Amino acid sequence: MHSRFFTLLVHAVFAIMFLASPMVIAVAAADRPPNIIMVLVDDYGWTDLSYSAGQGGGSKLYETPNIDKLAARGVRFSNAYSACTVCSPTRASLLTGKYPARLHITDWIAGHNRPNAKLLPPDWTKYLPHDETTIAEALKAKGYATVSIGKWHLGNAKEGYPDAHGFDVNIGGYERGQPPSYTAPYKIPTLKEGPTGEYLTDREASEACHFMTVNKDKPFFIYLPHYAVHTPIQAKKEKIARYQHKITEMKEAGTLGDQHHAVYAAMIESLDEAMGAMVAKLEELKLMDNTIILFTGDNGGHIGSNITDNKPARAGKGSAYDGGTRVPLCIYAPGISKAGTLCEEPVITSDLFATMLELAGVKEDPRGSASADGLSLVPLLKSPENKLDRAAIYWHYPHYHPGGATPYSAIRARNWKLIHFYEDDRVELYNLKDDVGEKKDLAASSSKMKDALLAQLSQWRTSVGAQPPVKNPNFDEAKEKVKGNGKKNAK
């Protein structure tokens, strides 16, 4: 009997040792898909953080140590673009992996009205259609818990909030593109009021941390489209005071540069603290090594009222130039990418859908390959020297915007960028490798390249069913010159 007991005891000890071995733990972890956190910042331009994104990116004033640290642990993309120069189309592209032109969601919802302009926008779609498969729906089908925390701006309650598009929970998302206030009371119908004085960006991070905690034992997808740093430009008083002091010191030292808005800088610091809070919670829950974090912006920085500056990129939000669409992008993918990697391959918002699918182990694209525009960035995460199998990336904006845009389409093919303006059929051509600020138009001197890219752009527009603007029968040049001066900024 003692011999049998001893034998059973030995078998039990070896069984425990085997189950606790690194090999078995690794296999168990491999059976669980990685958690995914998709952070999308509103109006967050290429230079709105302190790490250098290549080719002159980075800020002397803004402080983003937590985002910098995360980027240093992953891959930074120096040629990342939003799918549109304004927010709603980019959000639709991220959630579906399709170009805004294919979706016919081509302006911020509900758009900017220019009744006297030369052209009118097409009959475009002002909500996210339910027949589109979202990344939340694709991940939910694989067993993910899903939540959207923050801005939605893709339709009203009748047309569908996030919980009608694959998200288990919607916290703060509704039809408006900006919060009534960044300080509680927020007056956001889909967000339970916080205590008076609570800051919205802090609240969004807190909700994300709570969702992680509740769902720590299963894979989760957190879509965190911050309301920040969209107007109204509001921040915590103590942070504003600190940046006012910092700006004064930098002025005196001659090191300030073109970014000098203390309240905006304070908003960015709170945004960075939100990232720090989420990373700290992941580490506390011991989930950091099995969590993918993607961080980007929905369009270029808003330069109206000197809020920020996107130099060396030209212009800003609502523009056809790189300042309107060039954004930060970093991806933390433990076990896949080498820390501190910089990738120079041109990428765009629609690529993030396919990227998250592959990272989650979803092998079949639920949209069908015929209408899938984005490409997975996983090959670039594995090696930044890899190239994506495509000739170009594209934009289509058949609208006007007070940020400066008139109806246009554009193509970037490696270092070349061509913009086709619809009002006068004008074409501009730039070599971004030599001219990141788009100052030297090469359309006349490089006519062969211009013709080739214009033909490629035309073919793409046809392939995705892009809706062109139409002639305005009520065009009034005199009234348009008064009202269409591009000074005022819209959503």
Can I get a quick summary?
The chain has helices spanning 2-19, 22-31, 65-72, 87-96, 100-103, 135-140, 200-214, 237-253, 262-284, 322-325, 351-359, 378-382, 447-464, 477-483, and strands spanning 35-41, 75-77, 80-81, 119-120, 145-149, 169-171, 220-225, 291-297, 329-332, 341-343, 347-348, 393-397, 408-413, 416-421, 426-431, 470-471.
User: What is the spatial order of strands in the main beta sheet?
Assistant: 6-5-7-1-8-9-2-10
Q: How much is the radius of gyration in Å? A: 24 Å
Query: Which CATH architecture?
Result: 3-Layer(aba) Sandwich
Shape: globular
Strand proportion: 5-15%
Structural class: alpha/beta
Instruction: Give the SSE string.
Output: HHEHEEHHEHEEHEHHEHEEEHHEEEEHEH
CATH topology: Alkaline Phosphatase, subunit A
CATH class: Alpha Beta
How can the largest sheet be summarized?
Answer: 8 strands, mixed
Distance between the termini: 80 Å
Kindly state the number of beta strands: 16
Q: CATH superfamily, called what?
A: Alkaline Phosphatase, subunit A
What's the number of helices? 14
Low-confidence parts? 1-28, 484-491
**Average of per-residue pLDDT values:** 91
- Total domain modules: 1
